[in-house]
Every structure is written in structure tokens, then in C-alpha cells.
Amino acid sequence: MSPNLEKLLNQVKGETTKQKRIMELNPNHEIIAKMRDRAQDPMMDDVAEVLYGFALLAEGSELLEPLKFNQAVMRVLAKTV
After folding, report:
1. Is 9:3 a contact under the CB 8 Å cutoff?
2. CB atoms within 10 A of CB 47
3. CATH at 71
4. Which domain holds residue 48?
5. Count of C-beta atoms within a 10 Å radius of residue 52
6. 15-34: per-residue pLDDT in tens?
């Protein structure tokens, strides 16, 4: 069920149920391969947080912890610029 359909059903029924999200990763994707190569780098925690937050936003969901996502984005940008 898409996040938008979930929201509509919750509004109509008055429920607050949420469907469990599953993030599928392509192990051959360039980003995942680079993360695997740098697995010991502490920055990879922030990169994973950014990827998960981006996936939620891309599907139309809300961020669970927007402040945590924003801080991770800023730390990754600060180290890569």
C-alpha cells in the first residue's frame, strides 16, 4: 500500500495504523558498493541515515526523525564539500 493510500484510509477509518516499510537494496549499486568498501568509516552511519530518509521521502512517506535526518545530511555535506 502506498503512503498516500495509507493516509487516505487512516483519515476515512479514523485509524492510525502504519504499514511496515521494507527498504530493498541493490548490492551491485555504485553507492552500496562504495559504502561496503568504506564500512569502517564512521561517516557511513550518516550516509545510511541519509539514504533511508531519502527513500522515505521518495516514496511519499514522512521522516520519522526529521532533525536526525537533517543533521546527517549536514554532516555528510560538510565532509564532502
Report:
1. no
2. 19
3. 1.20.120.790
4. 21-80
5. 16
6. 666 667 778 899 999 999 99
